[in-house]
Description:
Chain A is an all-alpha fold. Chain A contains 15 helices and no strands. Chain A has helices spanning 3-35, 39-43, 56-63, 67-97, 104-116, 119-133, 139-145, 147-163, 167-175, 180-191, 193-209, 212-217, 225-230, 240-260, 262-274. Chain B is mostly helical.
Amino acid sequence: MSRSASSRHALWPYAVALVAVVISLFPIYWILTIALKNRVDAFAMPPVWLFSPVWENFGKAWSSTGFSGAFFNSLVVCAIGNVLALAAGIPAAYYLNRKHVPGRRTILIWLLISYMLPEFLFIVPMYVLFQSVGLYDTVIGLALIYQVFTLPFTIWLLRAFFADIPEALAEAARLEGASTLRIIWTIYVPIAAPGIAATVILNSIKMWNELTIALALTFEKAQTVTLAVAGFRGYASIDWGAMSAASIIIILPMALFAILAQRRIVQGLSLGAVK
Amino acid sequence: MRREKHIRWLIAPALVLLAAGTLYPVIYSGYLSLLQWNWGSEAKFVGLRNFVRILSGSGFPKALFNTFYFAVFAVVIETFLGLGLALAINRIRVGAGLIRTLMILPLMVSGIAVSLIWKVMLDPTLGIINYLLSLVGIPGPAWLGTVPTAMPSIIMIDTWWQTAFTFIILSSALKSLPAEPFEAARLEGATAFQTFRYVTLPMLKPVLITVIIFRTIDTLKVFDIIFGTTGGGPLRATESVQTLAYQTAFKSYKFGESAAIAVVFSLIILALCIIYLMIDTDDGEKA
């Protein structure tokens, strides 16, 4: 093989990667530039590629009615949702990893089916229930119903991580008289910490970005950041600048996650799908 | 082993949450679907009339057609594209980690932000896409605004958003394949295509099927990017089953009818999953 042929051979994947990266990033870059443009530049046609950035759109988005409150609501929902999912999911994953426990197969199939159900199958019953018990339009209610998808995912993923932990460790602790809860807490949780981190990250992304359920089960007090951003999609009055700034604000925390924890996200996603 | 007697308490919290979150709603939805009940008024038992109404009306069959139109194209395109990208980028030695990090960014973006980004970019007069097309002399369509182009636009948006998912999983799966079969193929003088067809593809198949099932379920449940861009229009051209269920329950407040839509749709998804899994095991037995 000639030298030029072999180097061409090695280069084409980079060309493919370059195109893919540009297509992946351009829309996010473009909305960022619109968020940083003044009104005239944002609507300019042909588009303005070089401009001096202004920050007023971010101020406008952040101070628009309910936006900052919704941002904090989403943080609280993610926090409570993760605590609930781990508190119920860690012992459940340990349980389902034992070979001969009652109901193992049924519960595993049940977990898969709950992932499959369309949101509106449980949204309407939950609306009726939440209205009558006072959970409608509360962050607690939202964190509870998010367990429909976070809990099966948490159990599924942690089961895969727990499966790699040698049984002999638990057996030794048991001979020394440690209780099952103690074994989970002092052996499984520390060893599977990277897996737990991956689970928390993926659950947070899912809950932070969730729209469908929040749209139906909140009204005002517990509005989430996705609903606050959705409020900008007016048809009559187009304020592209504030709308773009709001989009950037909602993207930013998750983009940081992606950059800081790329390896964990990839590991969690592939384990969730492959096992 | 006797100390493990109380082990069943470990599953109890999860079972309580799952029962409240899925079992109760499934049963209650089944019951609701038999009622004529507008939120705030008296409920009336109507038997299967809600099912007859949604199946004989125009709204639900149209939404079902749209949903499958969207799902089939989105899943096929995203799977092929993700596989192609995984094969190409797995050949890269230097910088592959950075490339993956940058490529999963769309996956981190909330569906509502995806909608707004593309609404701005696809704007017929002020959007960047039609400007770029005009540079090469192509008059851009109104994308989300006309009946024939609206659904293809949504499919394109979903492709931008979710191809990273198929890419990441297939890429991890490719990396974990054993080296020996590839070595054997090389020694036998197999071409790149033959290696792919007879070595890579069979070994990748279980993961490929899992990816397709995941994407099929997710695309059938499509809501955010339709709600955020077209709201189901123009002329219901992008109305999906879930946006229809939302309209029926929370705009018209017909809870019984909305429950009937959700019940029928859940059964369809369940049937599809069973068929997929049957195809999967059938092939497994033949091989």
